[in-house]
Amino acid sequence: MTSFLYRCTTCGKAYQRDEVRYLCPACAKDYRPGIPLLGVLSVEFDYVAIQRRFRKQSPDWSLFSAVEPEHYPPYPVGNTPFFPVAALGQAFGFENVWLKNDGLNPSASLKDRASFLVVAEANRLKERSIVTASTGNAASALAAVCAAAGRQAVIFVPESAPKAKLVQMVLYGARVIPVRGTYDDAFRLSLEYTARKGGLNRNTAYHPLTIEGKKTVGLEIYQQNGFRVPDAILVPVGDGVIISGVYKAFYDLKAAGLIARLPRLVCVQAGRSTAIHHYIRTGKYQNALRPATIADSISVSIPSNAHMARRAVLDSRGFSITVSDKEILRGQRTLAEKTGVFAEPAAAAPVAALRKLQGAGLLDCKEQIVLLITGHGLKDVDAAMSSIRIPAAKAATPCKAP
Ligand SMILES: *Cc1c(COP(=O)(O)O)cnc(C)c1O
Ligand SMILES: [Zn+2]
Question: Which pTM does this prediction carry?
Fold first, then answer.
């Protein structure tokens, strides 16, 4: 680890590590439920120290970590496969397409990375319980990491979450509170819960280390790509924390003098959950009205990290695109058929986006393009069932001898 400060992404004020826990106290005064978070904190390392100590020959990634490795829970996350998918790329007219398959994390989504780091922080602070609101995956991940770390997860989740995700949380031993309402309702309830009962709140972006945890996927892409920066990374976006984490990875690498440019970040949202998309396109923020998409993991009315996500896309010279549920399901099938990777609907959104970008002139066909696959398809079998047909059974009569 190297020393770090927290810097407010709204007002720029700096705080010592244990001076604050969640949002910038000055800016949080203006926050009320119903709008994106204000005063989200970003970790600012001693980049000169990193530059001096980091060696590509034997990379010490803990230099980029905001929690000391001695506090890490015994639950290995990340190190997921990164590999070229020529057939998928060719299907859409692109020559150099790669997958980062983060559905292969232990609880089957990228959320393991954020939960891992927040639980490490809970270990450091000796907080016994960790509380979160979730559309599903953040909670399954938190429940799993807490199980491994011997801590109590408390979870607020919409009752409509896919069954496999609910099964995961309960099986891992979390205290699950299904909410008859939306993810945004669950978010508000979980904040009220920690304000009243204590524990560490893991809500995405609200706890700054969720962004740092998700950052590790970007650091891995850089290393697995031979310490080179891809041209573009397509990221499915709900609350806007994954895309901010990917941005932060390359921001840190650049600040430490390891790279010269950022990859262009492409925000992919579902056609009926487009708050960040519109914010990027127009510069005006508006909640998404009644988000409704088969991609439950990116179904968000009030994205908590809208401001940082927009900045990540603009600073990286990226752009934003939306895909319909029909396009997502078609992308899910093409991905499976061309690569053998089964992604949940949200995680298939980048595939749908790539198909839509064919011939649009926004990505060059020779560029290195990375699709971030954020969650496993077995998390939501019902969604995939809506686009396939399982053949009817045949009677098990013995074959007749010729
Ligand atoms: C959470 C999640 C996303 C979106 O991440 P945000 O940080 O909310 O933008 C995308 N895909 C999957 C599978 C997820 O679980
Ligand atoms: Zn502030």
Answer: 0.97
Instruction: Report the distance separating Cα 112 and Cα 42, nearest Å.
Output: 20
State whether the beta carbon of 236 lies less than 6 angstroms from ligand 1: yes
Domain 82-108+211-384 of CATH type 3.40.50.1100? yes
The strand ranges marked E within 126-210 are 129-133, 152-158, 175-179, 200-201
d(CA 357, CA 354): 5
Long-range Cβ pairs for the range 51-60 (8 Å, 24+): 51/256, 51/257, 51/258, 53/2, 54/256, 54/258, 56/227, 59/223
Distance, CA of 238 to CA of 251 (rounded, Å) = 21
Identify the pLDDT of residue 306. Answer: 98
Task: Give the per-residue pLDDT at 398.
Answer: 81
Give yes or no for residue 210 CB within 6 A of ligand 1.
Answer: no
**What is the per-residue pLDDT for 402?**
66
Residue ranges of domains in the chain: 82-108+211-384
- For ligand 1, say whether the CB of 127 is within 6 Å of any of its atoms: no
Question: For a pocket test of ligand 1, which of 214, 244, 297 has the largest count of ligand atoms closer than 8 A to its C-beta?
Answer: 297
Q: Where are the alpha helices (DSSP H) in 104-182?
A: 111-125, 137-149, 163-171
* Helix (H) or strand (E) run with residue 236 in it: strand 232-236
C-alpha angle 85/294/174, rounded to 5°?
95
Residue 184: the pLDDT is 87
Give the Cα separation of 46 and 63 in Å (integer): 9
**What is the whole-number distance in angstroms between the Cα of residue 25 and the centre of ligand 2?**
7
Consecutive sets of 10 residues in the chain, 402 residues long: mean pLDDT of each?
Answer: 92 97 96 94 98 96 98 98 98 98 98 98 97 95 98 95 95 96 91 94 97 98 98 98 98 98 98 97 95 93 97 98 98 98 98 97 97 97 93 86 67
